[in-house]
Amino acid sequence: MSSALEHLKMMMEKLGIEPKRSLGQNFLISDHVIDKIVKAANDLQAETLYEIGPGLGALTRHLRETHKNYHLIELDKKFAEFWRSEGLSVFEGDALQMDWSELPRSGKTVLVSNLPYQISSSLVIEKSVEKNPLDAMILMFQKEVAQRIRAVPNTENYGMLSIVAQLTWQIEMLLEASGRDFQPPPNVASRVLIFRRREQVLVEDPAKFLKFAKACFIHRRKLLAGNLEEGSNIKRAQVEQALSEMKLKPTARAQELSLKQFVDLFKKLGY
User: Fold this and answer.
1) Confidence of residue 23 (pLDDT cuts 50, 70, 90)
2) Which of 34, 60, 64, 86 is 20 to 30 A from 44 via CA?
3) How far apart are CA 205 and CA 76, in angstroms?
4) For domain 4-197, is the CATH number 3.40.50.150?
5) Alpha-helix residue ranges (DSSP H) falling in the chain
6) What is the pTM of this model?
7) Does domain 206-268 have CATH number 2.60.40.420?
């Protein structure tokens, strides 16, 4: 099989295209990075596999060989038509606007993507609050977003995205990629994270937890009780009482609480 860079040049010439910055198209050309992502995807043993944004096929040409129930989601019409002509199942459109409950799904379902940076945070949030989440995901992010997703309490990156993602997933880093691993090279480093769905469901309604989390972090420097009073219909005194029962100070800020404490507070307030 040709190298990723050779494949990219061949595909660009074949389709007569250049990367579209408006769609966040930075094509992966590192064989090392591609091999690690493909191996991680194969190790998950998905019965149904989705790839968002296959583009010119850096991952696609490998994954199609090892997964029979394989579907692509592609916004670029030209790419969608090409992969459809190659005999693959293609859903054309914006992954954030699709009703995923209507997409075919059988057995263990996994999502793999070298994500366009502009949709990465939104996609993680969406996939984290679904009533019936996927079983696993392998996703590429801008390094700073990956840091926020895996952040722990009392650190500068810890916030709403951290607790919403960690509510549903056990998350680990697979690899880090530099600008030279892409064409054209982005000005930022990237990280690939593996998400595995938690066996234990921490809250019954993750969509409600998302609203709660947004309210908790509405003002990072302000007190949690004040944020919740402003961002919801819960009185400050009620929040302070709940914090006291949890052995936390009424002056606690959101970034000080662990995921478990957020879940406990969410339930105690009857959100």
Assistant:
1) low
2) 86
3) 34
4) yes
5) 4-15, 31-43, 60-66, 77-85, 120-128, 143-150, 160-168, 206-216, 224-231, 236-245, 259-268
6) 0.94
7) no
